[in-house]
Amino acid sequence: MSEAARSIPLTVNGTTVRVAPGTTIAAAVLLAGDATRVSVSGEPRGPLCGMGICFECRVTIDGVPHQRSCQIICSSGIRVMTDEVLKGSGGTGTP
Amino acid sequence: MKWSFDILVVGAGPAGIAAAVTAAEAGQHVGLVDDNPAPGGQIWRKGAHLPATAHQWQARLDASSVVRLHGWRVFDCPEPYLVRAERNGSWPAHPDTEIDENRGCAELRCRALILATGARERFLPFPGWTLPNVMGAGGLDAMVRGGLPIAGKRVVIAGTGPLLLAVAAHLAARQAKVAVVCEQASLSRLARFAVGMLTEPAKLWQGARYRMTIRQTPYRTGSWPIAALGRDRLEAVTLQQGGKRWDVPCDYLGCGFHLVPNIELPDLLGCRIEDGFVATDAMLRTSVPGVYCAGEPTGIGGVELSLLEGQIAALAASGNIDRARSLARQRRRRLGFVRALQQACALDPHLRELPEEDTIICRCEDVRHRSLHDHATWRDAKLQTRCGMGPCQGRICGAAAEFLFGWHAGSVRPPLFPASVSSLVSPREPALADESLVAANALHENAKETP
C-alpha cells in the first residue's frame, strides 16, 4: 500500500498510526504491533474471529472500554488504548 | 418516533440482503439491522474481489427503500415483533461528558421478523491457540479485508471445509506466502464429497480455480495443527499428518473447523431447534408465528442456498405464496448439498485429543482443560468454573465443549451481547445524525408518495 493511501491518522497506545480508509481498528492495532487484550491470567491476546463474536479484539476507544475493534472502522484522530498499557503488560484484572 | 416496519430482517449477509430487497420490492416497509459496518455479511465482506452476484444484490439493495442499520448489534428480543439493538462504536466525544447523543439504542418493531443471522467458525482448542496471530481461517481473511497487510507474510491455513481453499487462494492472490493448507478430513472422505458434487459443477469449478491459484502450496488431508509456538505471538506451528509431525515457521495461522450457525436469537425467541439448526417448513417459517429464518442457521449450505432462502422467506412473509412455492422447489433440490457438506466436514475423533491439561478452553475466563473434563454438563462446568460466562457468552468455547465433552451448550438469555446499562434500561430510536439512515428513510417516504 502506498503511503499516500494511508490517509487516516489515529493513535494506538499513544503512537500515531496511519491507515487506509476502511481499515478496521483491529487491523490498526496489529499494524502498530500491539496485542489487543491481556487475558484474566495475563496472556496477550489478538483477534480470533474477525467478525464480532469472540471479543478477543476489544480495546478502549476514546476512553470507552470493551469496544470490539474488528467491527469498527478507523476514523481520523481516535485514540485507541489496549490492556497492555492500561493494565501494564502481564497485568491481571477482570475484563 | 418509534421505528416500525412491516418486515424486519436481522443480518445483512446474502440471505438477509435477498430477504430485505425481495420484501421491499414487493411493497413492504422493510428494516435491515446488522452488526457489521457494511452489508455483505462475512462471505461478501468488502476489501476483496466480489462475485457479480454480490454486486447485483448490493445494487438492488442500494436502489431499494430498505431502511438500513449497519453497525447495530441486536442484544434483546423481548417479544417476536420487538427487537432491541445498540449501535457499535458510538462513544462520546469527551469521555467525561454525561450526555451521550451518539450512543444509540434502537427499539425496532415489526409485523414479521426474518432471522438471517449467519454462521461463525468452529474453533477447536490446541496448545498455543490463544497466541496472538492465531486466528480463524475466515477470521484471518476478514482481518486482511479489514486492512491487515499480508503481502510477504508466511501463512498456514488449517481446519476443515471449503472455506480453507477460498481463504488460501485469496491470501495468495495478495502475495501472502501460504506454506501449507491442512484439511482434517481424510482424502477418501473428500473424494466421496467431490463425486457427490458432480451435480454442482459450478462449485467444483470454483474449488478447482482456488486450487490452481495456490498450486505451489501443499494441500494435506487428514492433517491438522497440534501446537502453535511462540512467546508473545505466533512464531511457528507444529503440524501432524498420520504419524508424521513437523514444524512450520509462520506469521499467521488461520484455523477454523467449518461453521456453526448463529442460533442465539432464534433460540431466545423460542424457535424450535433441531440438531443444532433452526427448524423451518418449506416457506422458512419457524415454530414461532411471524418469525422466519433464512440462510446458514437452517443448515450450512453456502451463498446460493442462502439467497434462495432469503427470497422465499420474504415472499412468504409478504403474502406472495405462489412465487415462494416455486423458489421452494429450487431450494429442495439444493438441500442435498447441505447434507453432503456436513458429512465431508465431520470432525475426526482424534481432534478431541488436541488439548493438553493446561490448554485454555474458555478464552474469556481462561478456563483450562483440566478444570473442565470432570464435569458432567455444560451447566455444571459454567457454575463451577465460569466457563462460557465471559463477554462472548460461550459462542467460542460452547461449540468446542460440545465436540470435546459432548455437552449441549444451551440456555440463551438476554442480553445476547454485552450492552450498556443505558441501553438496557432506556430504549431509544436511532440517532437522527446517522446520514445513511436518514437518506434511506427519505427514499422510503418518497417512494410512498409516488403513486
**How many H/I helical runs of chain A?**
2
- Give the helix proportion of chain B (percent range): 25-40%
CATH class of the largest domain in chain B: Alpha Beta
Strand content of chain A: 25-35%
SSE order of chain A: EEHEEEEEH
Q: The CATH topology of chain A, please?
A: Ubiquitin-like (UB roll)
CATH superfamily of the largest domain in chain B: FAD/NAD(P)-binding domain
- Count the beta strands of chain B: 21
Q: Give Rg of chain A in angstroms.
A: 13 Å
What is the straight-line distance between the termini of chain B? 25 Å
**Total strand segments of chain A:** 7
Number of domains of chain B: 3
Structural class of chain A: alpha+beta
User: How much of the residues of chain B is beta strand, in percent?
Assistant: 15-25%
- What overall geometry of chain B do the principal axes of the alpha carbons give? globular
Please provide a written account of the structure.
The complex is a heterodimer of chains A (95) and B (451). Chain A has helices at residues 25-31, 83-86, and strands spanning 8-12, 15-19, 37-38, 44-45, 58-61, 64-68, 79-81. With 95 residues, chain A is of the alpha+beta class. Chain A has a single domain, classed as Ubiquitin-like (UB roll), CATH 3.10.20. In chain A, the strands form 2 sheets. Chain A has a 5-stranded mixed β-sheet with strand order 2-1-7-5-6. In chain A, a hairpin with a 2-residue loop joins strand 5 and strand 6. The longest helix of chain A is centred in the N-terminal third of the chain and has 7 residues, at 25-31. Residues 90-95 of chain A have low confidence and may be disordered. By secondary structure, chain B is of the alpha/beta class. Chain B folds into 3 domains: 3-120 and 260-340 and 422-449, FAD/NAD(P)-binding domain, CATH 3.50.50.60; 134-257, 3-Layer(bba) Sandwich (FAD/NAD(P)-binding domain), CATH 3.50.50; 355-405. In chain B, strands 1, 2, 3, 4, 5, 6 and 19 form a 7-stranded mixed β-sheet that branches. A 5-stranded parallel β-sheet of chain B has the order 8-15-9-10-11, covered by helices on one side. Chain B has a 3-stranded antiparallel β-sheet with strand order 12-13-14, with no helix packed on it. In chain B, strand 4 (72-79) and strand 5 (82-87) form a beta hairpin. In chain B, helix 5 packs antiparallel against helix 9. The longest helix of chain B is centred in the C-terminal third of the chain and has 24 residues, at 321-344. The relative contact order of chain B is 0.15. The model of chain B is unreliable at 92-102 and 427-451 (pLDDT under 50). Classes of the chains: A alpha+beta (95), B alpha/beta (451). Chains A and B meet through helix 1, strand 4 and strand 6 of A and strand 8 and helix 3 of B.
